[in-house]
């Protein structure tokens, strides 16, 4: 089976932050913790591009590799989850993550780290699916209900896609083909040395 | 004659007795209250989602939902 | 490494672990006190997660306990009309799901739409009626509030007349509430009623309706899939209409060329093929510059113009003055860029034009909008799928509120204020016309001095037939010398019913006006900036209204489609739906019987469906007659059957309809007209959504035929132009006997707008004709101050060298009842002391005055501080660094303390501020003036505190896109 993946089409992302608030909404994530963030490069100048970033659910997850209490596990389809009961809040996973996905809720005004929190691909955690305990600790478990991450399902322009990696690639490939002779994908300019009009 | 053999084997018997005694007073045996750390192996709770994700019907449902909701219809 | 085996966490420890994730459980007040050591955002950041309380309930609700009900509504934040699907358990809104079925958003939401569930928490909402007593907010009951407010207002009526009470309504009313509100003001006896459209697209409606008949978006967001070119001018769709970008980008991926014109390099511009940076306020020069190339190269559609356009030659004459070098000098756009854009539009048809506030909010807003129309008419792009004038409206129901007449210059359906219109509505309302007339200040005689011809428009002496004061000028209604106001007395009481004040200009004067009024009533889910701006001790009331999620009704999206909203949850706290409040107040003011005649009222709540049916019985002008509650509910249940590009249902229960029955949906609901997806599209039969330009301006002018020539909608039996349909015309055509006996009785002596049976419309359509006639669009509006659109410099301009050649208007003695200044302001040179152009706009995270969205923690977290975008060069000139506190000061003295964001997004010489912030005034955070527990998380200066005088010459739209300012490091 293919792995679950996110894909953010930077040519459609308009930095509307719909993905960010959809996630906050669904999981009641507290102020200060953003499982998903939109990053904008070249803000305000031609060439501006935005991309939505959260946990990438890496196949060879650095966070899992460095965790001193081994609280991470990966499902068969590639979703990286963790057990908050085991987590000691050391922050080492944040060091290791290339995307800054691990977040630590501010316990008080002076920022003492609590348990690590991160994007769960809307797949909850090691608790009974859709139980109250799972909801309190990890947020909603949409995957168990047969749904996909809300950030992607609510993306305003369908820039953010989430689901079976093969299918996501198919959707994206169709889009690229539709764009046809209007290449705007990343790297195209570099590859074909097109100058900025 | 027997007396001389016993006399000759006394250091050996002593060594054996001392050896057995010292061996039994070390902590080399595995005791139940010690946790053996296996690095890289998940130590948290069980997640029923893992089993669900292996169900082919569930996988198909998720694929269908992706195409239904996230493609440009 | 050997580890000692952990013991299992005990139950209590697990709970504390959970609490640590969610935040500590200390009392919020002590928390904030401790946290206030930090600066603004960080202090708030340390606050408890606000959803603690409801979350606990919700958490227990998740799972097998409560049955999950699915209810459907429509987002309340913008006119795209995204579908909202709510999961409700035990009356609590526990989840939000994407509405994949909706053809408008197909599940998508922007930050605001994705967070609407917070409305169901309402932590910072106004919870119960409050009264300002000795400077403190005290809780009162609804009964007490109604009694006190009613008594005060009746007292003012006795002393100063009904026109001294201002009823400021809302673009966030549902259609039914908007209609009731206009009727409310009418039966109170005043035209001093208005809403956000005045300061949003009023110049659009005036300019566009006066060009070809209706002033609304001609095509739809979905139709943009079919565009070959898209021209955005003054529209930042990526932030103002994010989900519309789904359709725009699909259009772009289908091959459309995208041109964005804006003073800033916006997020929309980031997706454009061509970005044109323009000096604020120079839209007309640019458009005429485009047409200069189009005419020069013969790219215009001459056949289309011959058949369907009047006055293009006069446009040509004006355009001839706008040669490339002149255009470059005035607008700052290089000649090559203008030519490229013109060529792109000419070679890629059909193309659409999109404009928003960037084009409308000027003293010459009506010129801008008409210039845009002229461009599209020249290219033959109107009435074509993939073309059109795609005007993106603002608030979720500003289109509906505009259509239903919450405006000071008209009645529902744009009927106007002439006696004939009042008589029509009196018939619909089943009220005696004389009774309605006598509700007005009939004894008032215009004593505001001589009004000469040439001052446009000439006010009537009778308050019933003269336009009331618009929201952009309410301050002057309070503060201006009462002898100069064309009504008996100044405004003494004002109702801010779903309308914030920080979206209007001239903050310091506004503060004074709010302090001068005898009574201020805010009816809103939130206190708003109104509650905290004035320094008052009493005479202010805050009444909690529900959001649209706690009630139900219909809403009209920008593309004219009506959608039905279901009620998701019961009203929170003590809030009441707007129509219930209207009932209670009308009862106190003793006209509830008339207001709700024919409308069932149960437990003080009027039946929404009955109101829609009354609307259906009276709104013949724009075809709000076919959208019955039943048809709309059927559409709601079958959203998925509508095609995503054409919006047509093929098969299924709604077979043949267009989604939302976009108006005009002619005739009675029994006629089952499918709605008109693309206006003025002659390729279809009128019965199937086709149309042509409206015959509104007469049959002939200066010997030239104003009716269409040889152009008509498919299947029309009159294969040429024709005037609007009247009973007599039917008789002349020999179609009178197609009417039933009942229809004949109702239609005798009437026309297509006043025939309550709908028979005239039905018969006209039966013969393939448009009920409103078939005429040419006109590029010359002979009743406007500038018949042919011309350029005029903004009142506060930095280009003093252009003021002589392109001066503003002369001061007007009376317009919308008030003296209005133009030239006397522009005469003074402010550009030395205030060298920077000040323009304002939107942010995606917030909406309107901002109180609602800034009270939503999920949104507030994303934009925590009010700021100004400043170009690096200007920042260096003022010795200001990125992130520093600055004072931004306007030439009328308003000054705001905000953060500087140094960015190249704005050009040198231009400063941009977002307008959504409120709760501060001139450097002071007004937090402690809010009622307990009802302050938004994020507060900041309102940019309009520093914005200035300047009003459109036709609609009194305010000039918030081109003013002046200076920056000083704080």
Give your account of this protein's structure:
- The complex is a heterotrimer of chains A (197), B (73) and C (970).
- Chain A is 26% helix and 13% strand.
- Chain A has 197 residues and is of the alpha+beta class.
- Chain A has a two-stranded antiparallel ribbon.
- Chain A is globular.
- Chain B has a domain at 1-28.
- Chain B has three helices and one strand.
- Chain B has helices spanning 2-24, 49-52, 56-70, and one strand spanning 34-35.
- Chain B is rod-shaped and about 105 Å long.
- The model of chain B has no long low-confidence stretch (mean pLDDT 80).
- Chain C is α/β, with parallel strands linked by helices and 970 residues long.
- Helix content of chain C is 29%, strand content 15%.
- Chain C is built from 33 helices and 34 strands.
- In chain C, strands 6-5-17-16-15-7-8 form a seven-stranded mixed sheet. Chain C has a six-stranded mixed beta barrel with strand order 27-31-28-30-29-34.
- In chain C, α7 packs across α16 (365-379).
- The termini of chain C are far apart.
- Mean pLDDT of chain C is 92; it is low at 1-64 and 451-460.
- Chains A and C meet through α1, α4 and α6 of A and α1, α3, α4, β4 and α9 of C.
């Amino acid at each position: 089976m293919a792995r679950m993946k996110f894909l953010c089409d930077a040519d459609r992302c308009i930095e509307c932050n719909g993905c960010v608030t959809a996630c906050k909404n669904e999981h009641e994530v507290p102020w200060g913790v953003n499982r998903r963030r939109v990053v904008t490069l070249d803000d305000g100048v031609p060439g501006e591009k935005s991309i939505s970033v959260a946990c990438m659910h890496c196949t060879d997850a650095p966070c899992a590799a460095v965790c001193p209490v081994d609280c991470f596990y990966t499902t068969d389809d590639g979703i990286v989850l963790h057990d908050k009961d085991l987590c000691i809040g050391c922050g080492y996973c944040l060091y290791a993550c290339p995307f800054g996905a691990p977040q630590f809720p501010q316990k008080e005004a002076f920022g003492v780290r609590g348990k690590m929190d991160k994007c769960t691909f809307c797949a909850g955690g090691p608790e009974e699916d859709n139980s109250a305990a799972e909801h309190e600790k990890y947020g909603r478990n949409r995957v168990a209900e047969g749904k996909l991450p809300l950030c992607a399902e609510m993306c305003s322009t369908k820039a953010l896609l989430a689901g079976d990696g093969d299918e996501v690639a198919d959707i994206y490939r169709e889009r690229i083909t539709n764009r046809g002779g209007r290449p705007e994908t990343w790297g195209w300019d570099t590859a074909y040395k097109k100058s900025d009009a | 004659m027997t007396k001389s053999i016993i006399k000759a084997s006394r250091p050996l018997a002593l060594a054996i007795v001392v050896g057995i005694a010292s061996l039994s007073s070390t902590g080399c045996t595995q005791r139940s209250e010690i946790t053996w750390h296996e690095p890289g192996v998940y130590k948290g709770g069980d997640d029923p989602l893992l089993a669900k994700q292996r169900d082919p019907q569930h996988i198909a449902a998720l694929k269908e939902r992706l195409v239904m909701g996230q493609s440009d219809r | 490494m050997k580890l000692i085996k952990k013991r299992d966490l005990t139950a209590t420890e697990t709970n504390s672990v959970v609490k640590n994730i969610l935040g500590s459980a200390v009392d919020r007040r002590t928390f904030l006190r401790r946290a206030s050591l930090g600066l603004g955002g960080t202090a708030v950041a340390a606050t408890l997660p606000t959803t603690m309380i409801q979350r606990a309930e919700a958490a227990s609700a998740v799972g097998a306990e409560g049955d999950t009900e699915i209810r459907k509504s429509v987002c309340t934040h913008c006119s795209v009309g995204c579908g909202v699907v709510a999961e409700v358990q035990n009356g609590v809104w526990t989840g939000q799901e994407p509405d994949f079925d909706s053809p408008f958003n197909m599940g998508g939401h922007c930050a605001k739409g994705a967070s609407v569930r917070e409305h169901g928490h309402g932590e910072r909402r106004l919870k119960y009626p409050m009264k300002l007593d000795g400077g403190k907010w005290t809780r009162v009951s609804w009964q007490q509030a109604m009694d006190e407010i009613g008594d005060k207002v009746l007292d003012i009526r006795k002393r100063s007349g009904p026109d001294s009470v201002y009823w400021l309504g809302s673009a966030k009313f549902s259609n039914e509430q908007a209609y009731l509100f206009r009727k409310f003001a009418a039966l109170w006896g005043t035209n001093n009623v208005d809403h956000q459209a005045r300061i949003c697209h009023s110049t659009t409606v005036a300019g566009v309706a006066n060009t070809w008949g209706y002033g609304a978006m001609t095509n739809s967001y979905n139709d943009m899939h079919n565009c070959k070119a898209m021209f955005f001018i003054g529209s930042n769709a990526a932030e103002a209409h994010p989900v519309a970008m789904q359709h725009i980008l699909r259009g772009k991926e289908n091959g459309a060329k995208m041109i964005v014109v804006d003073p800033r390099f916006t997020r929309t511009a980031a997706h454009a093929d061509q970005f044109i940076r323009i000096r604020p306020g120079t839209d007309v020069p640019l458009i005429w510059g485009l047409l200069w190339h189009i005419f020069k190269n013969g790219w215009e559609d001459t056949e289309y113009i011959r058949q369907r356009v009047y006055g293009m030659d006069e446009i040509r004459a004006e355009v001839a003055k706008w040669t490339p070098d002149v255009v470059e000098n005035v607008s700052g756009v290089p000649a090559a860029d203008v030519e490229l854009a013109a060529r792109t539009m000419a070679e890629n048809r059909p193309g659409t034009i999109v404009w928003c506030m960037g084009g409308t909010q000027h003293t010459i807003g009506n010129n801008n909008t008409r210039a845009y129309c002229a461009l599209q008419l020249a290219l033959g792009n109107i009435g074509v799928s993939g073309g059109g004038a795609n005007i993106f409206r603002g608030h979720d129901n500003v289109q509906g509120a505009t259509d239903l007449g919450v405006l000071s210059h008209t009645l529902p359906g744009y009927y106007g204020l002439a006696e004939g219109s009042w008589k029509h509505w009196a018939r619909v309302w089943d009220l005696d016309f004389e009774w309605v007339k006598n509700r007005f200040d009939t004894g008032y005689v215009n004593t505001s001095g001589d009004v000469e011809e040439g001052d446009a428009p000439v006010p009537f002496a009778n308050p019933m037939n003269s336009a009331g004061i618009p929201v952009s000028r309410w301050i002057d209604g309070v503060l201006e010398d009462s002898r100069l106001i064309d009504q008996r007395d100044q405004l003494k009481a004002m109702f801010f019913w779903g309308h914030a004040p920080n979206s209007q200009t001239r903050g310091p004067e506004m503060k004074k006006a709010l302090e001068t009024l005898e009574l201020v009533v805010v009816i809103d889910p939130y206190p708003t900036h109104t509650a905290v701006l004035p320094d008052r001790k009493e005479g202010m009331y805050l009444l909690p209204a529900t959001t649209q999620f706690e009630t139900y009704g219909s809403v009209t999206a920008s593309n004219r489609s009506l959608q039905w909203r279901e009620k998701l949850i019961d009203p929170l706290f003590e809030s009441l739906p707007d129509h219930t409040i209207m009932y209670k107040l009308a009862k106190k003011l003793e006209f509830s019987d008339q207001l709700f005649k024919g409308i069932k009222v149960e437990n003080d709540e009027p039946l929404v469906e009955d109101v829609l049916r009354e609307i259906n019985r009276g709104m013949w002008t724009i075809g709000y007659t076919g959208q019955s509650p039943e048809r709309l509910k059927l559409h709601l249940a079958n959203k998925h059957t509508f095609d995503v590009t054409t919006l047509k249902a093929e098969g299924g229960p709604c077979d043949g309809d267009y989604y939302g029955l976009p108006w005009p949906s002619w005739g009675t609901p029994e006629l089952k007209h499918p709605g008109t997806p693309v206006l003025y599209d002659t390729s279809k039969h009128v019965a199937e959504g086709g149309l042509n330009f409206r015959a509104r301006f007469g049959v002939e002018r200066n010997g030239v035929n104003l009716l269409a020539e040889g152009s008509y909608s498919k299947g029309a039996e009159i294969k040429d132009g024709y005037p609007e349909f009247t009973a007599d015309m039917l008789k002349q055509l020999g179609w009178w006997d197609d009417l039933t006996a009942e229809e004949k009785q109702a239609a005798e002596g009437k026309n297509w707008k006043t025939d309550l049976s709908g028979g005239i419309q039905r018969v006209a359509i039966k013969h393939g004709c448009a009920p409103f006639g078939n005429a040419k669009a006109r590029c010359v509006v002979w009743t406007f101050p500038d018949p042919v659109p011309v350029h005029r410099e903004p009142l506060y301009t930095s280009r003093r060298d252009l003021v002589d050649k392109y001066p503003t208007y002369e001061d007007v003695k009376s317009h919308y009842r008030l003296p209005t200044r133009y030239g006397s302001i522009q005469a003074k040179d402010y550009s030395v002391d205030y060298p920077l152009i000040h323009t304002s706009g939107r942010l995606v995270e917030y909406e309107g005055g901002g109180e609602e969205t800034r009270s939503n923690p999920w949104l507030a977290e994303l934009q925590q501080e009010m700021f100004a975008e400043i170009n690096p060069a200007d920042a260096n000139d003022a010795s200001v660094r990125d992130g520093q506190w600055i004072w931004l000061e306007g030439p009328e003295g308003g000054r705001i303390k905000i953060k500087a964001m140094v960015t190249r997004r704005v050009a040198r010489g231009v400063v941009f501020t977002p307008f959504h912030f409120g709760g501060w005034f001139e450097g002071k955070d007004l937090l402690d003036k809010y009622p307990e527990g009802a302050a938004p998380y994020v507060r900041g200066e309102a940019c309009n505190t520093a914005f200035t005088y300047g009003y459109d010459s036709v609609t009194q739209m305010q000039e918030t896109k081109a003013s002046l300012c200076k920056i000083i490091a704080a």
